[in-house]
Design a protein that fits this description.
single chain; 15 helices; DNA-binding; DUF4113; UMUC domain-containing protein DNA-repair protein
Length: 427
DNA sequence: TCTGGGGTCCTAGGACCC
DNA sequence: TCTGGGGTCCTAGGACCC
């Protein structure tokens, strides 16, 4: 087996029930209770405590479909992204200190390269203890010779309580590894989604062990190159490196569903201005310029009886830009063309694409340098103010107190860590 | 008789992830 | 009443060029 030859030891560390655990850390009376966190607009369940899981609440389930008897004994929260981002930073910093190299893979997951570290079991235990002591959150650690194997090991660490949240796939003989992988459905493999699982199962490839021993060339013909790499990684042949510095985004999107249906153009414009402001700020933060913009609006697809209209337009910008005022001008003009009265709009958004680095960009022959510089200065000032007073402090064209399009967030917890007005009270 | 064919760029859409 | 948002990569197919 290839894994035996490979000397790499990659760990995947992730926080258990991350969003739900963040809420519990700051309100210990929630411990041992069913806790869920909802998506934007309080729509779907995106995080569950262990008790919520055993109560039968499913991931991504619309909250209104959860049985009332279960709802009643569940503590429910709107997503408090400021809190989760802050807790994430703390965890990632701790993990970074405990490994020679780290890839922050998502808000609650990190790959660590632990190759060559003696007594891996003790090191992994130490990781869990330090995160627990310093943040109050608990983690699982999966170790394997490739990222895909580390992910699988993490799955075992989560599912099998006898391992205490730590599982090193490479500690086991080939025979015992196969025994483990035979018990895991193929859909649990990183990169095998719902559709691919269905097709594989129909071919008789039901478990991870089945996929590991399948013919990669044949699968490539049927499914494409991605699955060929998955099979290689399962066999210990690394196809994916640790990415220590996140590559710049290739597109930046900002969109939201509205709390209530929106019918009038002026509310849509107001929402679009907010989306452009958010996207442009992200664009500037990563030091990029956008040369293509996509604007889209749509009605509620779940409301089958209502008239449906879903449309978007992708336009080439006259030059690569990062300035909110100019981007907003194009977005609003596009929106005016797309808008048709008589529909109940549910969602809108903007997507900045074709991003290029800002440095050494030659501005177009026909751009007015003075105008570009003034716009730069304005955007920079806006970023500074919003940095200091919160993202909503300064926006374009906001009609104070009349946000008919804003999200439902009726169950937001306090911003314990990021807002000095909401500091936790000591008792 | 036989009516090109290979390369490149772009876009839309599928599939996946958290 | 109430159904998330923000990303990535790959592929197929059309347009275009010589």
């Amino acid at each position: 087996m290839g894994s035996a030859a490979s000397s790499k030891r990659i760990a995947l560390v992730d926080v258990n029930n991350f969003y739900a655990s963040c809420e519990t850390v700051f309100d210990p009376t929630l411990r041992g209770r069913s806790v869920v966190v909802l998506s934007n607009n309080d729509g779907c369940v995106v995080a569950r405590s262990a008790e919520a899981k055993s109560a039968g609440i499913k991931m991504a389930q619309p909250w209104h479909q959860v049985a009332p008897s279960i709802q009643r004994r569940t503590q429910v929260f709107s997503s408090n992204y400021a809190l989760y981002a802050d807790m994430s930073n703390r965890v990632m910093t701790i993990l970074g200190d405990l490994a020679p190299s780290q890839e922050v893979y998502s808000i609650d997951e990190s790959f660590l390269d632990l190759t060559g570290i003696p007594n891996l079991a003790r090191h992994a235990t130490g990781i869990g203890q330090r995160v627990g002591q310093w943040t109050g959150l608990s983690v699982c650690v999966g170790i394997g010779s490739t990222k895909t194997r580390a992910k699988l090991a993490n799955y075992v660490a989560k599912k099998a309580p006898e391992y205490d949240g730590i599982f090193n796939l490479e500690d086991w003989t080939d025979h015992d590894q196969t025994a483990v992988l035979t018990r895991i459905p193929v859909g649990e493999v990183w990169g095998i989604g719902f559709r691919t699982q269905r097709r594989l199962t129909a071919m008789g490839i039901r478990t991870v062990a089945d996929l590991q021993s399948a013919d990669p060339k044949h699968l490539r013909q049927l499914f494409g190159v991605v699955i060929e790499r998955v099979v290689a990684e399962l066999n210990g042949d690394a196809c994916m490196d640790l990415e220590q510095a996140p590559p710049p985004k290739k597109q930046i999107r900002s969109s939201r569903s509205f709390g209530k249906p929106v019918t009038d153009l002026s509310s849509l414009k107001e929402a679009m201005l907010a989306f452009v402001s958010i996207a442009a700020e992200k664009l500037r933060r990563q030091g990029s310029l956008a040369s293509t913009m996509q604007v889209f609006i749509c009605t509620n697809v779940f409301k089958a009886e209502a008239p449906q209209y879903s449309t978007g337009y992708t336009l080439k910008l006259p030059y690569a830009m990062d300035d909110t005022v100019m981007l907003a001008r194009f977005a609003i003009r596009t929106l005016e063309h797309l808008y048709k009265p008589g529909f109940e709009y549910k969602k809108a958004g903007v997507n900045l694409m074709n991003l290029t680095p800002r440095e050494n960009t030659q501005f177009g022959l026909f751009t007015n340098d003075d105008a570009v510089q003034r716009a730069d200065k304005l955007s920079g000032t806006m970023d500074a103010i919003n940095q200091r007073f919160g993202r909503e402090a300064l926006c374009l064209g906001r009609l104070a107190g009349k946000r008919r399009w804003s999200m439902n967030q009726s169950r937001l917890s306090r911003s314990y860590t990021t807002n000095s007005k909401e500091l936790i009270l000591a008792r």
